[in-house]
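User: Hi! I'm working on a homework problem where we have to compare a predicted structure to a textbook description. Could you give me the structure for the chain below?
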Amino acid sequence: MIYSFKIAKFWLLALVICFCMNVQGQENYKNTLKIFRKNYVQTHDVVKGDSTKFLKFFPIYEKYAVKAVFVKLEKPIEFKIPTSSGKAKEAIKIGSLSFNLEGKDYVLSVYQLKALLTTEKYHDYVFMPFTDLTSGLKSYGGGRYLDFTLSEITKSNFIIDFNKAYNPSCMYAEGFNCPIPPRENDLLVKIKSGEKIYSLYYKKHIE
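Assistant: Happy to help. Predicted C-alpha cells:
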C-alpha cells in the first residue's frame, strides 16, 4: 500500500513537471513568434510608418507548426507561373512538402523563381505559395507565401510554421508581379494562422 502511494505520488509529480514544461515551451514559442512578427512589421518592404498598424495577424497557435517531409523531384519541372500583373515568371517546381495537420495529410509543392537562381543572396531560396479556405475571407484571396532555403527543407526535423505565412507585396500596392499559387497548392482546410487581410485593402476593395 505504501509502495503504491509512493508510485502514485511519483507519477503525479511527473505529470505536473511535464505540464509546467509544456506550458513554458508554449510561452517560449509564442514569445519567439511575437519577436518574429515585430521584426516583420518594422522591416516591411511596402507598408511603412503609421500604416503598419493595419497589418493584422491570426492568433499564434503552435498546432500550425507542423513537421514536414520534403520529396525532391528527380527532374525539376520548368514552367511559367502567373502573377498578379498578368506577366508570367519563369519558375521551377523542385518537389513537395508533405505534412499532417489535425489528423489529415496534405501536400504542398515547392518552387524556385529562375530569376533568383543567378543571385548570390537568394540562389538557395525556395517558396511555397498557397491558398486555403480562409482566402478571400479572413486572409488575402490571392494567397499567402512561406519562404525557406533548400538546406532547411531537406533536414529530417524540418517544420512548416504557418504562423509565419505572409501576404505578397501586391496586397499592399500596385506595380508588383506577385506569383499566384498554382491550383495544386490550394488547401481544402482553414489555415487560421499567419497574416490576415491588410485592413486598408479590406476597406478599399471589400467594404
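For your comparison, note the following. Residues 49-205 form one domain. The helical segments are 2-42, 114-117, 150-153, 199-205. Good luck with the assignment!
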